[in-house]
Design brief:
alpha+beta
């Protein structure tokens, strides 16, 4: 994979009107919690969106969830950003774009957090969320400056070539059939939280079956992407040994999706050691 800079747009970007429809709290001007400490300083996510645009990063996805213990207040939300000028050139058209994911809430329970992801153009899910091997930053609700954000983004860009080396290593690491099988089983355990489960062999086979020619291969990168798409997007049939076969659904919660994604990546990269 090569890091390239170009001016080709990967896809359409979100307007604030579109963000308002799917994640209105991202544009909230005031906190949702009226019992916050006097030290709490509200950092409007909308300001971050505007500042990210100044740095060349535009919103491509947004989501939010309900706060625990309330029936109406929405708080934690996520906005994903992509820079149209930064592209990772992959083999056989498997190109990708780095993404920066921002999570935040306005209730005092979460700090700003930035994560790095890689969006594959050929995949219906597309987004690979890397774990602690990749840059991760937090900003507490005690102050914010444009210069601080600029430092975070610059550090992320400078670190990308090093991170791409991880993907390159995954592409040349060939897996045995048993390694592929165990990775699929471990992934199902992450998805279901069922420890030491014995899955039907048809389930394992289905999870490892590529959905497109691009993902056919015995290397770790190809196998990981097949499993990652199945586990997060659902659509396959799964069953424990002797149990009823059920169709697995797509993960709807963005928090659950981020968590599963990170853990899957951790499982896969452990095979590089």
């Amino acid at each position: 994979m090569l890091l390239r800079f170009n001016t080709t747009l990967a896809e359409s970007y979100l307007t604030k009107e579109q963000i308002q429809k799917v994640a209105p709290l991202a544009l909230a001007a005031t906190p949702t919690n009226d019992k916050l400490s006097s030290k709490y300083l509200h950092i409007n996510t909308e300001n971050i969106i505007d500042d990210m645009a100044k740095l060349g990063w535009l919103p491509v996805q947004a989501a939010q969830r309900k706060s625990k213990g309330t029936g109406t207040i929405f708080s934690k939300h996520m906005v994903s950003f992509q820079n149209p000028e930064i592209k990772i050139k992959g083999k056989n058209g498997d190109d990708a774009y780095p993404r920066i994911l921002l999570t935040n809430s306005h209730d005092g329970f979460n700090s700003f957090q930035f994560r790095v992801g890689i969006f594959r153009l050929v995949c219906s899910n597309g987004l690979v969320i890397a774990d602690e091997q990749f840059t991760s930053f937090k900003l507490r609700h005690k102050g914010y400056t444009f210069e601080e954000l600029q430092l975070i983004i610059n550090s992320t860009i400078e670190d990308l070539p090093n991170r791409i080396q991880v993907f390159n290593k995954m592409q040349v690491r060939m897996l045995t059939q048993e390694e592929k099988r165990q990775l699929a089983i471990d992934a199902m355990q992450l998805r279901t939280n069922v420890i030491d489960a014995k899955w039907d062999e048809d389930t394992v086979t289905d999870i490892l079956e590529p959905l497109r020619d691009t993902d056919k291969g015995e290397d770790l990168w190809s196998v990981f992407n097949v499993i990652q798409e199945k586990i997060t997007q659902g659509g396959y049939k799964a069953a424990l040994e002797g149990a009823k076969v059920r169709k697995v659904r797509k993960i709807k919660s963005f928090e659950r999706d981020l968590n599963v994604n990170q853990q899957l990546f951790r499982l896969a990269t452990a095979l590089l050691n």
